[in-house]
Amino acid sequence: MNPAILVPLVVLLPLLGAAVALVLGRHRRAQMAVSASVLAAVAVISAVLLATVDASGAGVVVQVGGWEPPFGISLVVDRLAAIMLLISAIVLLGVLVYAVSQGVADRHRETPVSIFHPAYLILSAGVFNAFIAGDLFNLYVGFEILLSASYVLLTLGGTGERIRAGVTYILVSLVSSLFFLSAIALIYGATGTANIAQLSVRIAELPDSVQLILHLLLLLAFGIKAAVFPLSFWLPDSYPTAPAPVTAVFAGLLTKVGVYAIIRTETVIFQESDVSTLLLVIGGLTMLVGILGALTQADIKRLLSFTLVSHIGYMIFGIGLATELGLAATIYYVVHHITVQTALFLTTGLIERFGGSTSINRLAGLLKASPLLAILFFIPALNLGGIPPFSGFLGKLGLFIAGAEGAPESVGGPAWLTWTVIAAGAATSLITLYALTRFWNMAFWRDRDEVEGYDSPLLNSVLEWEGSGDTAVATRTIPVPMVVVTTALVAITVLLTVFAGPLFDLAGRTAADLVDPSVYIGLVFPGGVR
């Protein structure tokens, strides 16, 4: 079978599924079946595409409508796009099962199922479209598709807090989209194309000052979407207000779409325009400012939102190194962070149901009531904190080694700056570990008698069962699928450590393609750029 047939399906299936789910608004089980089937199919397709492009060493390109580039729309799946498609599909499917189980348990009071499923599938289509877009305008369309759906998902339930957070999110997203669209217009006016492969050649023909202006404008747009400092102010106030599964998928995926866009444009379009020093500075500041913000938080959702911002800094650091090893470590770290951050937010949803709160000051006694829940939080917390041998440690170690090897030759910026960012990364990792273990100690280890006026009917019922001599576990009071999905994601984070060798090899092959833009150009224009 020709793999090119599969490429458009990663976008078409979620869009068609959203239409069917909307028609089936009064049939909840049918909606659930459609959504799960679509995302499972995309996960299988993504796995096939990844195996195909990695084995052949060449990507898969589809020219929509048969129009030759640059006049038509190019859909491109290389190793990087295939990796992002697969991990995104797995996470989206897992979070969907979690959300459906939560909705059934809550009788769909918080997430009206007739609205949730179409919006969720449209969000998925936008994410997938962004990863396979072969031109800047189609990338913009992918962003707008996922953002329009995210507005709906963010404000599900219609509470005042969510509406206020949604307004902030919409305004920031519109500003980002305005910058992105303006950059596309200027780039097209200067080069006569928006095709990413062709831009790799034509951008280099422009004066250096013009290249820099266009470069910085795109970087500004993607920086807002990726939530890098100082453009990250909106995220901690927006994400924590949404329902737990929505927050989890936003934290795990949406900022990574911005990171992906930065990787693609830095490695293909702007080879001649070097802003590596700026990226190193931004990466270091994003790490430190984000994690210092986390230290001041008393709510675990906001704490995790700030750690999300801080760890985006590691990815920007890897991109700023502008080396093959730096990009390989960045790709591995992106996959690690998507799974770990999603697992932590899903576990937080379980904590909220079980303990009745997400505030550090209102939680206690969870270890005695649910050892499984304690483990589900503890493992990804150690992973995010960079404790060996977890994938968080391996990813950071790879980034630090890449920086240390490049520093003597001043690759990616002055040597002292590279070493400074490495030190900032090490400090951020330690502070992350401190912040998360502090929450674990207070929520799980300390006794609930130490919290004045503590009251959680769910936790109380479990402890009463224990007191009567019967066995009580979290799954008696929390829907089993929610626990199973969270456990599965935590297990995937562990597998990223177990199979770190093959995964780093794959990331290395992907990075080798990225540092040589002729590989990407040859995919889209086999006969050369016209």
TrEMBL record:
It is a multi-pass membrane protein. The chain crosses the membrane at residues 6-24, 36-60, 80-101, 113-133, 139-157, 169-190, 210-235, 242-263, 275-296, 303-323, 329-351, 372-395, 415-436, 483-504. It is found in: Cell membrane; Membrane. Keywords: Cell membrane, Membrane, Transmembrane, Transmembrane helix. Residues 133-403 form the NADH:quinone oxidoreductase/Mrp antiporter transmembrane domain. InterPro entries: CPA3_Na-H_Antiporter_D (IPR050586), NADH_UbQ_OxRdtase (IPR003918), ND/Mrp_TM (IPR001750). Belongs to the CPA3 antiporters (TC 2.A.63) subunit D family. This is Na+/H+ antiporter subunit D. It comes from Agromyces soli.
